[in-house]
Amino acid sequence: MDRPAALLVSHVPHRALTSNPRVSYALYVPPGHYSHGAGATPAPAKLPLLVSVHGTARHVYDIYDSVPFAESTPCPILAPLFPAGLDGPNDVDSFFLVGFGGGGQFALRFLYLYPERLAAVSIGAPGRSTVLDERLGLADLIKRVRVQLVIGDADVDVHGGREFWAWVQQMRAQRKRGDGCASDEADELPIMDQGRLDTLRNLHESWRRDGIVAQLDTVEGVSHDAMGVRECIPPFPQPWVQNQSTQ
Fold first, then answer.
1. 57-77 pLDDT, tens per residue?
2. What pTM did the predictor assign?
3. Which of residues 125 and 163 earns the better pLDDT score?
4. Which candidate among 101, 123, 167, 174 keeps its CA 20 to 30 Å from the CA of 153?
């Protein structure tokens, strides 16, 4: 295998996104899926893609821990890095999206915005579980996506801390007194008084009433810890990824 070809499989060097160089990504492509040289058997159809989105702390090195899953399935894994401070078409028809924490919140909202792009999605412990706006009529599209909700059963702390939300309420009260009325901007962010576990369970129940089927996995003894829930995530998309890999 020549050097340029070698850079397109296994651990691909961290690359900048062409359309926006501020965003970069790590990529792992199982080298065993591709053969090179005279007489080699042509590779089967392109592999399905799994996208793993980091949380607020932006740990992207987890891609190295995902190599066994990528090799055994097989599927390439893409781990984008969205730098802090950030306020085009391709040949991937649909893909599998995984995210935890801030990445889980991203995955949930991506599901609402682009359900047709997802084959399956694993949403891990989002800080704020966004409720589906029934007026948008997206339920039927979301029903076609295989969805996993995953969280530790000890992930019960209020996101941001109760002190923060008490401060928010105090600031809103001061604004009301100063303006004489509450502005739309002040009331835009609902007060959170539940931990991630309760809000994710409420989301699961809300979806059930809308006919959206989602697999809810709670991991015993785990708080807000991506490593603690990791083992139950790969088995969820693996059957569908493997099915796509053989087509």
1. 777 767 888 899 899 888 999
2. 0.68
3. 125
4. 167
